[in-house]
What does this fold into?
Amino acid sequence: MRPVRVTRTFPVSVAEAERYWYDTSHWPSWVDGLDRVVQTAAPWPAAGGSVTWESGPAGRGRVTERVVAYAPADGQALEVTDDAVTGHQTVAFAPVPHGVEVTLQLEYRLNRASPVTGVVDLLFIRRQMTQSLARTLDRFGARVRTELDPADLH
It folds into this structure.
């Protein structure tokens, strides 16, 4: 599997960031490529729970994220599947001075291989995956800063 990783720091508490991250009703405003959440299955966000979502017309299609590990105030590990990719995604929350550091990582495998898959992945897909994770975290940060009540942040 090929890993891509992005880390950002936000001026909110771990608890606030985590609560906002796991609230799937907010996902369409910040998850890159997500058009709508189709289903959230209990015990989301704990192990055994899952979320199924759909992308817009030019996106990944139907994506399923199944929780394989969850540690409150620490993070979550997911098995991620869609038509093109199978992977393992993690989100981690770490307290830092004046906020939280959020790391989003995806280890992925392309479901369809060809003789040029490795080159295409190295030159294009890995970069696109990294940019998608960065857009997700950047949008998450913008939304979490504006939607949370400033009185709740401290």
Remarks:
- Residues 24 and 142 are 16 Å apart (CA to CA).
- Strands lie at 2-10, 34-41, 50-55, 62-71, 75-81, 85-96, 99-110.
